[in-house]
Amino acid sequence: MYEGLLTTVVTFSGHLVRNIKGIRESQNLFDDLGDDELDMAVAQAAESQGKVKSRAPLITRPFDYGTVITYPFLPQNWQETRFSDGLSYGVWYGSREMETTVHETVYHWRRFVTDSFSDLDREITADRRVFQVTCQGILVDLRGKEQQFPGLVSRDSYGFTQPLGAYLHEQRQNGLLTPSARCNGINSPIFNPAILSTPVDICFLAYRWNPAKGGEVTVERSGRGRRNPVGRF
Predict the structure, then answer these.
(1) What residues contact residue 128 under an 8 Å CB cut-off, 6+ apart?
(2) Are 119 and 211 in contact (CB under 8 A)?
(3) 32, 99, 128, 171: which has the fewest C-beta neighbours closer than 10 Å?
């Protein structure tokens, strides 16, 4: 089925970087729903009922997609990714370099903002949390395969990669090393959480963009009241 594509595996032992939505300072998400502590407690209890318990949510949360959120209740599947339709299994995405995670997440965040607030003429800020995870396992190596199989790095379609991901998941493969479609970097989609361990925070980032004006997204490294420019993407 994938003759010439799935020809190489590597024993990987090292760190992968992941970039997710996250804020540096905790906030009370229910403070506008009531006036006293009892209201807050009821809201928090109701919210916790839908959570999947995990000792390491930074690793396991992506694998819950498709089990917690199911198709009959979803008018549109917002959880699909390059190597999963988001309905039957989840994928944990990391990268070899932090810069690659920025290119990847800026692309998807800008699409979300454009779809939701395309005419808004003011700067929107998104907080991001960047951490690394230790990965030890055998991975399918797709690096260098993009010339023969351009669907691997299609910028507009998951038509090639989602069936490939489903096939590899069915074959119980741990994950991949594959070129990024957004930059000259390497991503690692992981299907098996057992090969991931020891999440360690690296930094927090802030993305800033005015959707009405378009252009590049400004990325800053934030912490202790300071903002250090990372670049424009």
Answers:
(1) 19, 20, 21, 22, 105, 204, 205, 206, 207
(2) yes
(3) 32
